[in-house]
Specification:
3 helices, Alpha-Beta Plaits, alpha+beta
């Protein structure tokens, strides 16, 4: 489970996927399979979560890594390059963005 805390020594990546209601579940299935079989086993992986909006037009993925280089290395693996081509075909666009947690509120 992701732990969100300001000042944490980790890299946060939030990726948004622009999908249609017809492709949402297919893409979600591919993402779940990628996390189960590849991503979570990569060096530096900490945790992740997948979120879908009510209209099934957006998927948001929140992931945490020890270092930005760990995330980038995962993207460069041959397996993820292959998987990302399939993911790209299932959505209009997707964009991973790296963030630092600045504040949290309970």
């Amino acid at each position: 489970m992701p732990k969100i805390a300001a000042g944490a020594e980790l890299q946060t990546v939030i990726t948004t996927f622009d999908v249609t209601p017809g492709s949402c579940q297919d893409l979600l299935d591919h993402l779940q399979d990628a996390y189960e079989n590849v991503i979570r086993h990569q060096p530096g992986f900490i945790a992740a979560g997948l979120h879908v909006n009510d209209a099934q037009t957006r998927i948001a993925n929140y992931s945490q890594w020890r270092r930005r280089e760990d995330f980038q290395a995962m993207l460069r693996t041959e397996e993820m390059r292959k998987r990302n081509r399939v993911i790209n075909d299932l959505c209009r666009s997707f964009e991973p963005v790296m963030y630092d947690v600045m504040h949290t509120y309970d």
